[in-house]
Amino acid sequence: MNFKCQEEPIHELEKLANARRQSLIIEGGRGSGKSYLARQYAKMLDILDFQFVDPKVDAIRQSIEECIKFNQSVVLCIENLDLGVQSASYALLKFLEEPPAGVYIIVTCRNIQMIPDTIISRSSVVTLNPPIDSDIELYARDKYGSRYDELSRTQLWSCVRAFQDVDTVASLSPDKLAYFKSLPDMCKFNDSVSNIVWKLGHFDDNTETPVELVIRFVMNYIHTPFIERCGIECIRDLNQGRIASHAILAKFAFNAKYCE
Question: Could you give the angle at the alpha carbon of 164 between the alpha carbons of 92 and 144, nearest 5°?
Fold first, then answer.
């Protein structure tokens, strides 16, 4: 699939692959396709061994040690390094100072400001813009076929902003889709903040809701400048890893109830 939002980044990756660049950072919002582009880079290098690595010190060290031990070409993708602990970045930095031949590192992140300058200076940075509406439709039609028409008619579909959102909505059961129809009652913010946070953060079966989609749904339903500002600020903090999802809902509910 050829997405408009990925055309320029793919051209950049092709140039970097021709230069056999060993260290890359792919930055972009949640669900914009960073991991997909990392896989594409491995294909451009003609390397079959592609591995995802958690942004944890032990996982990074173990993966790098195994690559050196077996002396084979491999692409390691460290996902969302900006959301990991700082010591994970320093574990990676030691490797980037003297990368062994045949080992390629791709770091993905949502907020590049959370990545140490010493890692950025040793890497090529590729920026990925959010998908546009036609990209999202193409992705949904290709992956879910005729279900796209059904999904696109739900109230929740207007809140979809990323490829990951498409997968989330498609995975929801009828009961969980129906949950969003009950949100307008909660949008009155008449209950206590703690109860509002629980209801916004959990489906009827007590499993956790997709927080960003819930906030977008509330923003679309109430549709006032104040709620929109609250929602945009909370979503930005969530995507940049500044505040945990449960704390984001508390901030959103408190502001919506008391701060207008």
Answer: 135
CATH 3.40.50.300 boundaries in the chain? 4-128
Task: Quote the pTM value.
Answer: 0.86
Q: What is the 3-state secondary structure (H, E, C) of the chain?
A: CCCHHHHHHHHHHHHHHHCCCCEEEEEECCCCCHHHHHHHHHHHCCCCCEEEECCCHHHHHHHHHHHHHHCCCEEEEECCHHHCCHHHHHHHHHHHHCCCCCEEEEEEECCHHHCCHHHHCCCEEEEECCCCHHHHHHHHHHHHCCHHHHHHCCHHHHHCCCHHHHHHHHHCCHHHHHHHHHHHHHCCCCCCHHHHHHHHHECCCCCECCHHHHHHHHHHHHCCHHHHHHHHHHHHHHHCCCCCHHHHHHHHHHHHHHCC
> How high is the pLDDT of residue 239?
83
Res 173 pLDDT > 70: yes
∠ CA 243-244-245 to the nearest 5 degrees? 120
Whether residue 185 has pLDDT greater than 70:
yes
Residues in Cβ contact with 192 at an 8 Å cutoff, skipping those fewer than 6 apart: none
The first and second tokens of residue 224, run together, are 């006032």
What residues are paired with 107 via a beta bridge? Answer: 25, 78
- State in words which class domain 4-128 has: alpha beta
